[in-house]
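Q: I'm writing up a methods section and want to include an example of the input and output format. Could you take the sequence below and give the corresponding predicted structure tokens, formatted cleanly so I can copy it straight into the document?
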Amino acid sequence: DREQALRPVPRAEPVRLRKGNGRRVAGERAASAERELVRMLLHRPAYFEQVIERVGEESFRDPEMRRIFGALVEHGADAGPDVFAEQLDGDAVVVMQSLLEENGGLDHADETVSGSLSAMHERNLTERMSEIDREMPIASDVQKDDLTKEKMALFKELGSLGGGQWWKKFR
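A: Here is the clean output for your methods example:
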């Protein structure tokens, strides 16, 4: 059947995939927050104790920010850039130098530190909510109940941060 072979093949309708825009936004905000938090610590070491009470190196996803923050933790925020640079690779030193050259917003350090910590916490909450979404289909009924309770608590905490406007409803 040559005619049948020459007929155009009907194309399937494109599938609309749901995009986690809110989750991506939270992740992007947290990446910017990591940078601003490290920048503030380099310029305003007085915030160091407050920050290390809430985040550790594992909280930083950007490798350079993680290394710079690790140097701050290892040597103390008052040690200074020369001491930090001894521990850092070339890329991290370049990033640290650029952070040190940026002086904008230093008069709003309280808001920047607080906002950065909140954005990073929001990212952690949204990531855990995504993990729960992935676990639900394979969870037992008892596990589903526990996961639902955990997700409700995370949702409530996310709402208290002032974030999560994108999270229109509990899914």
